[in-house]
Amino acid sequence: MSTTYLQRLLIVTFAYWAAGLLGSYLSLPGDAVSPFWPAAGVALAALLLWGPGMWLGVLAGGLLIQFQVTHLAALQQGWEPVLLAFCAVAQGLVGAWLLGFQRQWQLLSGSEIFRLMARGALLSAAVGASLELLVTLLSAAPSSHGTLPALVINWTGNALGIALVAPICLLWANGTALGRLLWTSIPMVLVSAALIWGVQQLVDSRVKQVSIELNRQADVLSEALKARCDHYLQSLTGLMQIFRGSEYVSREEFRVVADELLAELPAINAIGWLPRVEVSQKAAFEASASQELGKAYRIQPPADDSHWLQEASSSVIYPVLYIEPRQGNAAVLGFLPGTSEGAAMAMTQAIRSGKVAMGEVGEQNIGLVFRAAMGQDGKVMGLVFAKLDVGLLLAATEEAIRNAPLRLSVQDDNTRQFILGQAEVGGGLHAHRSVQVGGRLWRLDFQYQQPYVLDVVQAGLGLMLIGGLLLVVVIGSTVLLVTGQTSLVGQEVAKRTRELQAVNQQLRENEHFLNSLVDNLPLSLQVKEAKGLRFKRVNKACETLFGQSRQALEGQDDASLWPPEVVASLNRDDRQALAGEERTMVSEERLPTVKGERWFRTLRVPVLEPDNASSHLLILREDITEALNNEARVQELNVALAERNSELSAANHQLEQLSRIDALTQVANRRVFDEELANEWQRCARHQLPLGVMMLDVDHFKRFNDAVGHLKGDVCLQHIAQLLSAAIQRSSDLVARFGGEEFAVILPGSDLAEAQSLAEKVLDTVRQAALAHPDSPLGPYVSVSIGIACGYPVQHDGTERLQLLALADKALYRAKATGRDRCLAMAWPESHS
To answer: pTM for this one?
Structure first.
């Protein structure tokens, strides 16, 4: 046996044990059935990757789980835990056999994914769950999961564990990229976690509902039992009243009242009277009692004098004088109940408290209840007692729960003796209540037994789990398929990334040029955000004028430079410039600076987005303080102001042109192209005119750059832009650089034939220019390919113009695919081509 094999066995054992612990943690309350069993996925993955010899590791892990979850009680349950561990082995082997013990899994195709989910997860889990159910039913003490709902839960739990764990393990073992592994596992784990959480919430909710119902029934039944007991015990108070009104009560008077109570209260077996007799008057009392009863009466002395009740001044005894019914009870006449320790304590409690007191419940659930009778002088005359059949007293409560799934036990808290039922056994839900009966505390335990609780909890749970399992399988299969296809297009993504990096480099160069232009302007320049009017950008002239650095100013507003009254005026002018219809706003302002109060001529220009919404405000300020202070130079100031205004206009125009012209080719940039295409689309749609778009690409331009360098490549693009502009001579047409070596032309009013004729003209112009290409497979000169799309615009949501542009791009790539150095035209919509 090799070291590698042993290491793998240990890995499988530990992994199965750890996954099994997780599944056991997620088991349903009070039951061993788990709605998610990831250990099944570990077993299948191990058998597929490392062969059928890993069954020993699965068996060892299964035995560890069986013994640990049951806290080693499984050792006393015979062969059932061992057979359940073998069921896990059988399930894994069946799943691996159904999959042909295939080791290499890329999970790129739908058929491969479907085979793993259907055979490896659903079918093998059904086999494993069936085997476990069979073992449970054949065991000596079938557990609560030997039912059909538990079979469904077991099946879905195993299948869910395989569907989630097995694909992740197989992809990881076969060297799948980390990105795909994460994008595969995260959605499946989240969906599975949501399913398990939902199941747990549903189970907890049902257990809570059952617990609420149990507590409700416990409250009702305990209150009813307390009321019944109180009714019986308080009946002695009515009997006591006949002794309070008279110092002597005859046997006949006692019998009449006692018979009424016995007829009303069937749980009372007998009622008696214990008069207070001083020991010194014992003989006289016996003579008087014999005369009253018509036969000899003798007090039966106790065997131990310690049980006689004592008063502070003299010894007193309480013998039985009257008892009803006498039949079967005549032998207790003259008996001293105080000789019993439990009865003595109850009698003492009754005398001291003046309330009903109950002794211990003895054999046959019979208990003695005592109530002290007080004379008119407040002294104790004696004790009324009753033999109470506690079993019959509790019979009404037992009858109320006879047909309910409710179990009741009653325990005397003083003696720890069970009056009804026995100690708590098994699982289930319990509700504990306490009832005071004649000074004794009875503890009531109401229990819903485990089978009933599980029936309620598992009702309909199988359908939910089946639906959740199918959802996880569908989502997991979809994610696996999508991530697999995504990995196949990685190279194309890398290529597009390189192109974007080149475009970004060009943008950075343009940005550097604009920043240099702004910083070297002699005027104070500020760019504010339209929302909030905070400084987005300032130049060096602004820093010098106001004595603060760019870092201190950017992100702040006017309040960081000027007092509130000045800020209010400036904000008003800023908002007026942003909201006005004019493109520029000129005003004169007096502002505090590091040189004191200065006069400025201020130009405000809103920066517009493609949707004509203002995003920023450009502010140029010229210091005109000296000119205004020198009245003699008014005329000169006017001339200077005119020159400055001209410079401002030129600078503004230059800025406008820089934002619209491609820096390299000096033709319109992509932004201008998009704006003009949208405008011409709307115009042609209103006037029902055709609109053409021409896309031009320099053939094999990358090879040109690789052969002679990017600088000469830039020169080549400039020549192409000049040739294209020379060929496109209509004022309504627009030539723009679309990106990289691509150019685009908007041809308003041109149909397909006109556009194609113009494209042929462009091709001839480029050919005649004979621009040298050192590495072109088409010849020694630079050539271009042109794609054309023409159609009649319609006024809808504007997305149709993007379709026209995409069609021109499609025509361009067809021209390139069919040999380059040519043009290809397509009509829009494409069905008219």
So the answer is: 0.50
